[in-house]
Design a protein that fits this description.
The structure holds 2 protein chains of 2 kinds.
Chain A (H helix, E strand, L loop, with lengths): L12 H8 L3 H35 L4 H16 L2 H24 L8 E2 L2 E2 L14 H34 L2 H9 L4 H31 L11 H9 L14 H31 L5 H10 L1
Antiparallel strand pairs in A: 1-2
Helix pairs in contact in A: 2-3, 2-5, 2-8, 3-5, 4-5, 5-7, 6-7, 7-9, 8-9
Chain B lengths: L1 H13 L7 E6 L2 E2 L3 E3 L5 E2 L1 H12 L3 E6 L5 H6 L5 E2 L7 H4 L3 E2 L8 E6 L10 E5 L3 H9 L2 E5 L2 H9 L5 E5 H9 L6 E8 L7 E2 L4 H16 L2 H10 L7
Parallel strand pairs in B: 1-5, 1-6, 9-10, 9-11
Antiparallel strand pairs in B: 2-3, 3-4, 6-13, 7-13, 8-11, 8-12
Classes of the chains: A mainly alpha, B alpha/beta.
Chain lengths: 293, 240
C-alpha cells in the first residue's frame, strides 16, 4: 500500500507494523467485517418475514396451511444448524443448477448424478465457470442469506406464534365487538400488540445470529473468524511478513468487535422495548403509565 | 408465473456463457510451501506455479479457488471447481472417489516434529490434520491422535503442549523447524506414505484428466518440474 512497504524485510518496529496491517490480505480481513454486517442487515429482516409467514400459517384455520407452518418450524428447529448448513446449501445449489440444466441443455445424455458426483452441462453452471470470482462470492453470499433466513425464520416463527397467542383475548374481543372483521382485528389490534411479547425472544435470536456468522465459512464465504485464524497463524519466511502465532491478538480484536456489537444491540433493543411497552396492557406499560402521572 | 420469474432470474444470473470454458482449480491455501495465500491475498506457492504452467501447456484458462480441507472432495464432486491441486497424496482409498493424474511430486516422506528428539511418537499424543494420510497413519500407529482442521493448528498444538508431536509432510515441516530457533526437533522415524502428490478430478472428467496428465509428463520430460521442486522445497528433496 505505501511505497516504503516494497521490501518488508528491511522494516523495523512501527513501520513494519503499519505495512503489515495494510497488506492485501489485511484489507480482505477488513472487508470481511463489512460482509458480516451486510449479512446481518440483510438476514434479520428476511428471517423476520419468514417467521411472520410461518407464524401466520401455523395459526391458519385451514389444516393444510397449519401443517405447513408447524412442519416448517418443527423441521428446521429439530435439525442441528451445522447439518442444515452442510446439507441444505448443497441441495439448493444443485437444484438451481438442475433447473438451469433442464432449460439450457435438453439434449444432454450423460447422467447428471453419477455416484456421488453431480455433473450438469457446462452452460448450466451457476455462476458460469468463466465468470469472475466476485460472482461466485456473491452467489455464495446469497445462498448463505437464504439459508440463514430459513433457519432463523423458523425460530422467529415460533417466537411470533407465541407472541400472537399472548395478546389478551379481551383486546381482540373488544375489536370484534366494534365490528371489525378477521383481517382488521389481525392488522389493527393483534399485530401492533404482539411485538412487545415477541421482543425478548427476537432479541435473543438476534444475538445468536450475530454469533452464528462464522458458519459463513462452511458456505464458502470468508468471514472474520476465517481471516483471524488465517492471519494469526504462525508464518514462516515464505511469507513477506513472518511472525509467530498471533491468533490470540486477532481473536482479541474479534472479541472486542463482538462485545461492541452486543452492547450496541442491547442499547437499541432496550429503547425499542420501552417504546413498544408504551400504552400496553403489560406490567412494563403499566409502570410507564404510573411514572407519567 | 412464479416459475417464469425464477427461470428468468436464473438466466440473467448465468448469462454470458463464454465459449472457452474456464477450469477452476481448488486448493486449500494454508499449506506453505505447497499452497498458501500470500500477503497480497492471492494463492501462491509451489502448486500455484505448477498449476499455472500446466494450464498454459494444456492451453486452458484457469482460475484459483480456495476451500477448507475438510470439504475439498465433496465440493469437487458437487462441481464447485474442477480440479483439486492441494498437496493431496495419491492413495488407493482416495482413488475410489477421485480420478488422479500422475504425480507431480514424487512420493515424499512424512515426519514427526516435537519439542525434543526423544519424544515417544508411538505412545504419546500426536497431532495431524483431519482427513490426511498422516492422520490415518497416526491412528493406526497406536499413538493418541488429535486432529485439527488446518495444518497450522497441528503445529500450534505441539507448541502449546496439547500434543507431544505433529505428524505431517516433511516438506511442510522443514521451514517451520529451521526457523523455530531450536524450539523443534525431529522425533521418531520418517515414514513413506502414498504414491506422491497428484491432481484430483471427478471420475467422469476423463478428457480433462488426460490433458493435465500429458502436461505433467511434458514438465517432467523437460526438467521444468524439477526446477520448481528445487525452488520451493530445496535441493535435498526427491526429484524426477
Amino acid at each position: 500500500m505505501f511505497s516504503s512497504c516494497v521490501d518488508p524485510s528491511s522494516l523495523q518496529g512501527l513501520n513494519w507494523l503499519s505495512c503489515y496491517l495494510t497488506t492485501g490480505k489485511h484489507i480482505d480481513f477488513y472487508w470481511s467485517f463489512l460482509t458480516v454486517l451486510t449479512l446481518l442487515v440483510v438476514t434479520a429482516p428476511t428471517a423476520l418475514a419468514f417467521g411472520f409467514g410461518g407464524a401466520m400459517l401455523a395459526r391458519s384455520p385451514h389444516l393444510p396451511l397449519r401443517i405447513l407452518g408447524k412442519g416448517y418450524t418443527a423441521m428446521v428447529r429439530g435439525i442441528p444448524d451445522i447439518v442444515f448448513f452442510l446439507f441444505f446449501v448443497i441441495a439448493l445449489d444443485q437444484s438451481i443448477e438442475w433447473l438451469v440444466h433442464q432449460v439450457r441443455c435438453p439434449d444432454w445424455t450423460d447422467p447428471i448424478r453419477n455416484g456421488l458426483e453431480f455433473r450438469v452441462c457446462p452452460q448450466a453452471k451457476v455462476p458460469q465457470n468463466s465468470s469472475p470470482q466476485v460472482w461466485h462470492s456473491i452467489y455464495g453470499f446469497v445462498l448463505a442469506v437464504i439459508t440463514f433466513a430459513l433457519v432463523f425464520g423458523a425460530f422467529a416463527a415460533n417466537v411470533l406464534y407465541g407472541a400472537m397467542q399472548a395478546v389478551p383475548r379481551a383486546q381482540l374481543e373488544t375489536a370484534e365487538a366494534y365490528g371489525m372483521n378477521h383481517g382488521q382485528v389481525f392488522r389493527r389490534v393483534l399485530v401492533p400488540q404482539m411485538w412487545v411479547y415477541a421482543l425478548p425472544g427476537l432479541s435473543n435470536l438476534w444475538m445468536i445470529l450475530i454469533k452464528a456468522t462464522p458458519l459463513l465459512f462452511l458456505l464458502g464465504v470468508q468471514d472474520i473468524v476465517y481471516w483471524a485464524r488465517e492471519l494469526g497463524g504462525a508464518k514462516t519466511a515464505v511469507y513477506a511478513f513472518p511472525h509467530p502465532d498471533w491468533r490470540l491478538y486477532y481473536f482479541l480484536a474479534l472479541l472486542v468487535f463482538y462485545l461492541a456489537m452486543t452492547k450496541f444491540s442491547e442499547v437499541v433493543l432496550t429503547r425499542v422495548q420501552n417504546r413498544l411497552s408504551h400504552g400496553q396492557a403489560t406490567a412494563a406499560g403499566e409502570a410507564q403509565r404510573k411514572a407519567a402521572t | 408465473m412464479k416459475k417464469l420469474i425464477l427461470t428468468t432470474a436464473l438466466l440473467a444470473l448465468t448469462a454470458g456463457a463464454a465459449s472457452a470454458q474456464t477450469i477452476r482449480l481448488g486448493t486449500e491455501g494454508a499449506y506453505p510451501p505447497y499452497n498458501f495465500i500470500n500477503d497480497a491475498g492471492e494463492v501462491d506457492g509451489f502448486e500455484r506455479e505448477v498449476g499455472d504452467k500446466l494450464c498454459e501447456l494444456a492451453a486452458l484458462t484457469c482460475e484459483w479457488v480456495t476451500t477448507d480441507w475438510d470439504g475439498i472432495i465433496p465440493n469437487l464432486q458437487s462441481g464447485n471447481y474442477d480440479v483439486i491441486i492441494a498437496g493431496m497424496n495419491i492413495t488407493a482409498e482416495r482413488a475410489e472417489v477421485l480420478a488422479f493424474t500422475q504425480n507431480y511430486i514424487p512420493p515424499a516422506t512424512s515426519a514427526y516434529m516435537a519439542l525434543s528428539a526423544d519424544t515417544d511418537v508411538m505412545g504419546g499424543v500426536v497431532s495431524a490434520q483431519t482427513g490426511t494420510v498422516q492422520s490415518a497413519h497416526v491412528a493406526a500407529s497406536g499413538a493418541t491422535l488429535v486432529e485439527f482442521a488446518t495444518p497450522d493448528e497441528t503445529v500450534a498444538a505441539v507448541r502449546n503442549g496439547e500434543a507431544d508431536a505433529v505428524f505431517a509432510d516433511k516438506d511442510y515441516l522443514v521451514p517451520i523447524l529451521e526457523q523455530s530457533g531450536g524450539q523443534f526437533a525431529w522425533a521418531g522415524e520418517e515414514v513413506q506414505i502414498g504414491d506422491g502428490v497428484g491432481m484430483g478430478l471427478r471420475k467422469s472428467d476423463t478428457e480433462l484428466r488426460d490433458k493435465f496428465d500429458a502436461a505433467i509428463a511434458t514438465m517432467k520430460a523437460d526438467g521444468s518440474l524439477n526446477t520448481l521442486i528445487v525452488k520451493w522445497f530445496g535441493d535435498k528433496v526427491a526429484t524426477y
